[in-house]
Amino acid sequence: MADDVWLVVGLGNPGPSYAGNRHNAGFLVADLLAERAGGRFKAHKGRADVVEGRLSGARVVLAKPKSYMNESGGPVASVMGFYKVPVERLVVVHDELDIPYGSVRLKRGGGDGGHNGLKSITRSIGGREYLRVRFGISRPPGRQDPADYVLKDFSAVERKELPFHVDRCADAVEALLAESLETVQNRFHADLPA
Description:
Elements: E1 5-10, H1 25-37, E2 42-44, E3 48-55, E4 58-65, H2 73-83, E5 90-96, E6 104-108, H3 116-125, E7 131-136, H4 146-150, H5 156-178, H6 181-188
Parallel strand pairs: 1-4, 1-5, 5-7
Antiparallel strand pairs: 2-3, 3-4, 6-7
Helix pairs in contact: 1-5, 2-3
């Protein structure tokens, strides 16, 4: 059915103090997708900002939870319910420590890998079979605590390449709306030895 709507959620923390953090990679991708769809985020009653539009010919709702990362599940469940989006049409874009900086990985289901945003979503929607588009941020150098690392801004060197990586991650999301997961994985996973 052409009317099937997709929900694409970018994860991050609200507010200007978090805007440039590695943990906000999902928000950066969602912002770019909103721009591509020609829409602006507006407040939704479900504690999220949303944009309705079309991407790759598909009807899509883009959402950014207004809660903190570890409480993303409530807003995601609320927006899913409002738009009647089934779990298999939910796409979550998030930062991923276990992937080299700038790499994009896609999968359906799986664990949360210690990511509190995913943990909260899985708990709130009662399932894990949603699609994930993972934006690689690499592991912290030395002994830096991962929890501190994700809340730090991208480094100056990383920021130079950030627009390119955000663009590529947004391309992966758009491809996912139009093609099979496997096809998109083959295209976007080619940058790394498996």
